[in-house]
Specification:
- The structure holds two protein chains of two kinds.
- Chain A is built from 16 helices and two strands.
- By secondary structure, chain A is mostly helical.
- In chain A, helix 5 packs antiparallel against helix 6.
- Chain A starts with a helix and ends with a helix.
- By secondary structure, chain B is an all-alpha fold.
- The radius of gyration of chain B is 20 Å and the shape is elongated.
- The termini of chain B are far apart.
- The C terminus of chain B is likely disordered.
Chain lengths: 461, 59
């Protein structure tokens, strides 16, 4: 296979870009967590919470995660098709254009250009750039698949195709807008329809960015790093089709107990509960793959990232659907419980799998061992403890917050004012900041370790 | 039942049927070896000889 240095440099470029945006996004996240504890850090307008928060989320979703997806996808694609990338020049251009676009996106959000749609905040000129970048990616993925020398496609390729298609569909449809100036546009939808389309996009962004490609990585890198075949390929294929079948209906569970028609909410709730089955099919597949080889959790530094990652995916996919149940949604929605839920998925599942995949790829590309296994273990424990401290604290905070909002006196009046509930959050926000600091320390160790591993390549050449 | 409601029902049943068909196809015992083959092939050497056709059949 002509898997030459050119493709390796593209994978390496996207991987290092991903780590850069991860560090930037986490610094902003730490600043936001600190703002909650020390409100004087809320330096308006550029560092006001409202602007900073969207740079944090967009930086980590579109900067870190998407760059990680590009890096891992190009790597996996070449290996599983046993075919060189169809258009390496296009991928190289995509790498440069991607980093410029993310920098411009961050600047625009800092400046207050914002559509006000969550995770779709970018204004129309940047939306067009995002679509062009995605088309460049899709052309390379589909072009390489068409040329592939393996007849049967391993499940990771199926998940990759789903990622390419669903991101394109949901991103374009939700971002349809009427521009009124360079920095302002209005949604093509109105009222309840706008909310419904927005959360159809919002939840499928979770599917197509945080689920499909991360499962593609998990199904590829777990067997490759352990030397063990996945327990059941058939089960993984059924899990794939079930996820694709079920995910597109679940968006309205973000709109429980709102003016959205009740039947739409019920359909979303039913499909959310249905999704537990295919999600756990992947969890079971991962656990059974390790059957009889659990000693690798100690002897192989990569395995614990993948196994803990899929465990958090399993927990996440139980927690998400149960939150959609009306009685629980009534208590938990709009509280700190929700960011707690999201961060278990992103800090646990997504980041654990992407960072471990990058360790694997970078050692293969450099043809050397990792710079330091000890540092990789330090990275693992810091992000595990940091993430648990962060998320468990927010779950407890959310339950307390919801209970305070709904507590009533015997005469029916509210037992607490809203400010009482804000004041009660300070201890939890302080612990969250501490968890975030630990997590950031772990990621800083990872960045150093990965950079040193990639430098070995430069020295070796 | 209105034609629109019937169309929704038909579409739902069609999707459920396609989904059931996919499960039946992949869990058919006759296809087991073929469907499970990729999980072993992906573990093969990543860099085989340049003229290797991999698992792809000719023609």
């Amino acid at each position: 296979m002509g898997n030459g240095a050119r493709s390796d440099s593209i994978v390496r470029g996207f991987a290092l870009s991903s780590v850069f945006w991860l560090l930037v996004g986490l610094v902003l996240g730490l600043w936001l967590a600190a703002e909650m504890v020390y409100p004087s850090l809320n330096l308006a307008p550029w560092l006001a919470y409202g602007r900073l928060r969207v740079v944090h989320t967009n930086g980590l979703v579109y900067g870190f995660t998407i760059a990680g997806i590009f890096a891992c996808s190009y790597y996996i694609l070449e290996k599983l098709t046993r075919t060189p990338l169809a258009f390496p020049g296009l991928a190289k251009a995509q790498l440069w254009m991607f980093n410029i676009a993310i920098a411009l996106a961050a600047l625009s959000l800092f400046a207050g250009w914002n559509t006000s749609k969550e995770y779709a905040e970018l204004e129309w000129p940047l939306d067009i750039v995002v679509v062009v970048l995605w088309v460049m990616f899709a052309v390379n993925v589909m072009g390489t698949l068409v040329k592939r020398r393996e007849k049967q496609m391993y499940v990771s390729l199926w998940f990759l195709i789903a990622c390419v298609v669903t991101v394109a569909v949901v991103y374009i449809l939700n971002n349809l807008a009427i521009p009124v100036s360079l920095s302002k546009s209005y949604s093509a939808y109105a009222g309840v329809n706008d909310a419904n389309v927005q959360w159809w996009f919002g939840h499928n962004a979770v599917a197509s960015v945080f689920t499909f490609p991360i499962l593609a990585m998990f199904y590829y890198f777990l067997p490759k790093s352990t030397g063990l075949p996945i327990y059941s390929h058939r089960l993984s294929i059924i899990a794939f089709w079930s996820l694709v079948f079920g995910y597109l209906w679940t968006g309205a569970h973000h709109l429980m107990l709102t003016p959205v028609p009740e039947w739409i909410q019920t359909v979303a709730l039913a499909f959310s509960l249905f999704l537990i089955a295919p999600s756990w099919a992947s969890v079971i597949n991962g656990f059974y793959t390790m059957n009889g080889n659990w000693d690798q959790m100690k002897s192989n530094y990569l395995v614990k990232f993948f196994i803990l990652g899929i465990t958090f995916y399993g927990l996440q996919t139980i927690q998400g659907p149960t939150q959609a149940i009306r009685v629980l949604s009534a208590h938990l929605h709009y509280t700190e419980y929700i960011p707690g839920h999201v961060h278990m998925g992103t800090m646990g599942w997504v980041t654990m799998v992407i960072t471990a995949s990058m360790y694997f790829m970078m050692t293969k590309i450099s043809g050397r061992e990792i710079h330091s296994v000890k540092l990789a273990n330090v990275h693992f424990w810091l992000i595990l403890v940091g993430q648990l401290l962060f998320t468990v604290t927010l779950w407890i905070a959310g339950i307390v917050q919801g209970a305070m909002w709904k507590a009533t006196n015997p005469d029916g009046s509210l037992a607490y004012t809203f400010l009482d509930s804000v004041a009660a959050m300070y201890p939890y926000w302080t612990v969250r900041l501490l968890g975030g600091l630990l997590y950031f320390a772990g990621i800083a160790v990872f960045a150093y370790n990965l950079y040193m591993t990639s430098r070995l390549k430069a020295r070796a050449v | 039942m209105t034609p629109r409601a019937l169309a929704y029902l038909f579409f739902t049943l069609l999707l459920a049927g396609v989904f059931a068909g996919i499960i039946a196809y992949y869990f058919n015992r006759k296809r087991r070896d073929r469907v499970e083959a990729p999980k072993y092939r992906m573990l093969d050497d990543d860099d085989p000889l340049p003229d290797s056709k991999g698992g792809r059949r000719e023609g």
